[in-house]
Sequence to fold (236 residues):
Amino acid sequence: MPKSLPTIELSGALCCPPVAAGVVSDDDALEVALRLKALADPVRIKLLSLVLAAGPQGTRNIDLARELQLTDATVSHHLGQLSRAGLLLATRQGASTFYAADRLALGALVTVLDPNCC
Amino acid sequence: MPKSLPTIELSGALCCPPVAAGVVSDDDALEVALRLKALADPVRIKLLSLVLAAGPQGTRNIDLARELQLTDATVSHHLGQLSRAGLLLATRQGASTFYAADRLALGALVTVLDPNCC
DNA sequence: TCCATACCTCGACATACGTCTAGCTAATGG
DNA sequence: CCATTAGCTAGACGTATGTCGAGGTATGGA
Fold:
C-alpha cells in the first residue's frame, strides 16, 4: 500500500454496477474495497452478528466489549470503522449510544459482489 | 492486530451459518474475515472483475499486469491472495497460468453476508 | 454539587500489508 | 543449445492497522 488509499465518504449508500457485470472503474473498486476493509476483521464480523442479533433497537459499546472481551476503546474503534463505512446506524440515548446494523447498506454491498446478480 | 491472525486453510468452500442468522463463532468469524480480507483491496476488486469478465477460460498474469499498470510481481502477489482464499481457480497451460473466478466460492461468501438470507 | 457511568480521543506499540527490484525456474522457439 | 518469455519467490521499503492505557467529556443520579 505504498500509495495511501484516499479517505472518501462512505456513509451514503453504495451504488455501483455489480463486479460481475463488467470491469469496474477505479473509483468503484475503491468504494467497494474500503467497505470490505471495514468488514474484513474477525472482531468486526462478530460485532456485526451481535448487532444484527440485537435487532433494530441496537446494542451499546459496553455490552459488546463485555461480550468480546475487549476494552471499550477497542470496541469504539471497531464501531467507528463500521459506522464510517455506513454499515451501522448510531443513535444516542442519554449517556449511551445504541448501534444497529444498517441492513440496506449491507445488502447493497452484498449485491455488488454477487456473481449471480446479472 | 496484536494477536496475529492464524493462517488457516481457505481453499475449501466456505460453509457456515449466515452472519444474520445468529451470533457467529470465533472460528466462523475468522474464516469469513480472512476471505473478506483477500477481497478488501481496490486492486483485487478490479482484478476480480477483470477475471470475471474473461469468463471460464481465465486470464494471464501478464495481461492483468498490463491492464492494471502494475508489475507482474505485484499482480502475482494479489493473485496469490485471491487463490489462497479460494476465490480463483488457476490452471497451468504450458508456460502460462490462467486464472478464472470461482463463482461458487464468491457466491458462498456473499450468501453468508446477506442480511436477507434468513 | 459531586460522583459514577458510558463513550470517545490520543498516543504508543507491534504487526500486517502493498509495492517494487532482483533473481530464479520452467516452457517455448529458433 | 541458447535466447526469450511467463511466472514465481525473496527481500526491502514505507504505510496502515488492531490493541491497549490514560485521560477527556457529557449524562444521570444522590
